[in-house]
Amino acid sequence: MQHECRITVLETKVFPEYQEKYLADPKSGPCPCFQKGDTFLLKRTPEQDDFYHLMNGKFCGEAWDPISRYVYTALQGGSIMHKWTNDERMIACCNDGTRPVIFKIERIDIPETEEEKQWLVKQNFKKIMPTPAEQKLFSLSKDWLKPPLSRKR
Predict the structure, then answer these.
(1) Which of 13-22, 68-77, 141-150 has the highest mean pLDDT?
(2) Is residue 77 a contact partner of residue 111, using CB atoms and an 8 Å limit?
(3) Nearest CA-CA partner of 21 in 72, 84, 97
């Protein structure tokens, strides 16, 4: 199975009060690199490796740094935020504290065989919710290194 990753700009924010107080250019304004609705489709094939080339310079380094771990996971077919979000997407933002950009990161599965298609159909990648026992464990536990409870569904 092949995997791609789609990054969508959900929103751009600007905090003029912080820019005025802390920046050399107090009127910097919103991020000049991204607009709400911008979409990027990343591939990782022998012919095109968008991950290691930061999309050939089309992506801001300050934005790439905090989201690249999720992009890499998606391109490898991994679970981006299993049971953290209500499906297999991640919402993350860039490091710019005075004008952050909010991104949606999605893994796209591309089955290559009929067997992979059938397997994908049987998966429950949407609206996965933790069991009540898992919810209680996550809300009470301060030791995140403990092994998870065995799951009975």
Answers:
(1) 13-22
(2) no
(3) 97
